[in-house]
Amino acid sequence: MIVIEGATKRYGEATVVDDVSMAVESGSMTVVVGQSGSGKSTLLRMINRLVEPSSGRVTIDGVDVSTVPGPQLRRGIGYVIQGHGLFPHRTVAQNIATVPRLLGWPRDKTRARVEELLALLQLDPKQFASKYPHELSGGEQQRVGVARALAAGPKILLMDEPFGALDPIIRLKAQDDLKALQRRLGATVLLVTHDMDEAFRLGDRIAVLNEGRLQQCGTPAELLLRPATPYVQQLVGSSDRSYRLLALTTAAEAVEAGPAEGLPGIDGGATLREALAEIVWRDAPALAVLAEDGKPLGRLSLQAILARGRPQ
Amino acid sequence: MTGALALRLAALALLLAFLFDPAAFAPVFAPLAQHGAPAIYSQASLLDLTVSHLRIVALATAASAVLAITLGILVTRRAGAEFLPLSRAIVNIGQTFPPVAVLAVAAPLVGFGEAPTFIALFVYGLLPIFENTLSGLQQVSPAVMEAARGAGMGPWRRLWEVELPLASPQIFEGVRLSTVIAIGTATIGSTVAAKGLGEVIIAGLLSDNTAFVAQGGLVVGVMAVLIYDAMGAAERLLLRRLGVLAD
Ligand SMILES: Nc1ncnc2c1ncn2[C@@H]1O[C@H](COP(=O)(O)OP(=O)(O)O)[C@@H](O)[C@H]1O
Ligand SMILES: [Mg+2]
């Protein structure tokens, strides 16, 4: 668990991060969201000591990070930045091997690990290992950046606008892939973005930062249903907050008992937002919710969906 | 084999032939020598003069490189940033001050011969290497540096494994430029009695013997071109090994 207590950073007169306290549960994904210049990167970089707080402290599993030498600390924490920052003079394999090499891993172990990571990120080792970063597409570079951060098997991954340089279609896929990867590895991820949709797509919890001050840190539903400040309310948007809320629940979670014969089917993993769209499109009173093997789990009525789109 | 390479090899062969057996080329230069004056300079071996000439160029440029690259590294560190304007000023003065003037000032202080020539070439060679080192180090992408730091590389590693390799094309370019400038400039060393090819040219000027001037000038010129190209080729080889240059 990462615990941030009263973290403050001043540059001269300006207080860039102002008395922020929050915790990131192990194995969860927390997204820090805020406008450009709100202090997100500074907050993130205090965790791996790329920035030293002016006051306050950060602990990881109870250990104050200021007691660990910077380079040693950073070798144990994955760090992914916007525009990937791959070493242009190193091959993909060498880039990924950066931290294992710093840690003095034996050659065989490093090579095996590089292949494993390439495969994990859907990059064919044979094809990509010996390429240089400039020979890759934006999406591939981004994935190599993630592979490099994961190379030494860190429990924590810090990501600073990791999808900022990707175009929208690739970005959605990259977000889904990251979420799946995080679940699979059980990693603790702290991700920074200025994109509220990204925050809602990815975050188990969302921390809203404005002018260096933490406005609220809570689950997406909490932000929607009980925004702590007018700023949060404005940020989560009032026009589409029902849709956001619906997008947080899956059809399988909202399934009702009852006959489902003859109803249009929907995958249990689909969100209620998608289910609503399906009902509107098909002009059906309800949907049949299907398990992964295609067997019906039950039904999902329009009323049940609508009830989930407002405070209960 | 490309035409350009063939031309260079031919030039090299001709140059070596001339240096090892200048007398054989007497008929070529004879038309330039008037009233039965000797066509080939024979006060000293041309080969010896060439070797001395190149030796002082190599020594002076190596010294310039060591100082200029070190300075360039220092002023791009956070702690050294305040020395940037001062270093730049010093290096610039070194370039503005004509080498002849440096010789005139240095000779009375350190005596005649190679020492003042070395000083003049050394001072004159600093600027191209310094400026190239500086711009090479400054153009390394901030995202790359941030990633290096974020991965847990210390300052030395970042310098050695990231900054210098990525800056090396420019640094090499600076060294190459300084070398070629020094090959030409070293001829003035002969005015303070340093052994070098300038001796041939000056002897030609003093005795009004165009043949001497031509052979001294040609050897220097052809050498400058060949060395410039050879360094370029060596550079590409090295950069490829550093991964900085794509195949
Ligand atoms: N090293 C620094 N020196 C001075 N000001 C800085 C420094 N780093 C960041 N800032 C300022 O702090 C504010 C927050 O920066 P940052 O944390 O990068 O914001 P964000 O990532 O949310 O865009 C900005 O106004 C930025 O100009
Ligand atoms: Mg930022």
Automatic annotation (TrEMBL), chain A:
GO terms for biological process: quaternary ammonium group transport. This is Amino acid ABC transporter ATP-binding protein. InterPro entries: AAA+_ATPase, ABC_transporter-like_ATP-bd, ABC_transporter-like_CS, P-loop_NTPase. Keywords: ATP-binding, Nucleotide-binding, Transport. Belongs to the ABC transporter superfamily. GO terms for molecular function: ATP binding; ATP hydrolysis activity. It comes from Alsobacter soli. The lineage of its organism: Bacteria, Pseudomonadati, Pseudomonadota, Alphaproteobacteria, Hyphomicrobiales. Residues 2-236 form the ABC transporter domain. SUPFAM superfamilies: P-loop containing nucleoside triphosphate hydrolases.
From TrEMBL, chain B:
PROSITE patterns: ABC_TM1. Residues 50-231 form the ABC transmembrane type-1 domain. Keywords: Membrane, Signal, Transmembrane, Transmembrane helix, Transport. Its main location: membrane. It is a multi-pass membrane protein. GO terms for cellular component: plasma membrane. It is found in: Cell membrane. It comes from Alsobacter soli. Residues 1-26 form the signal peptide. Belongs to the binding-protein-dependent transport system permease family. Gene3D superfamilies: MetI-like. CDD domains: TM_PBP2. The chain crosses the membrane at residues 54-76, 97-127, 212-231. One of its GO terms (biological process) is transmembrane transport. This is ABC transporter. It comes from the Bacteria.
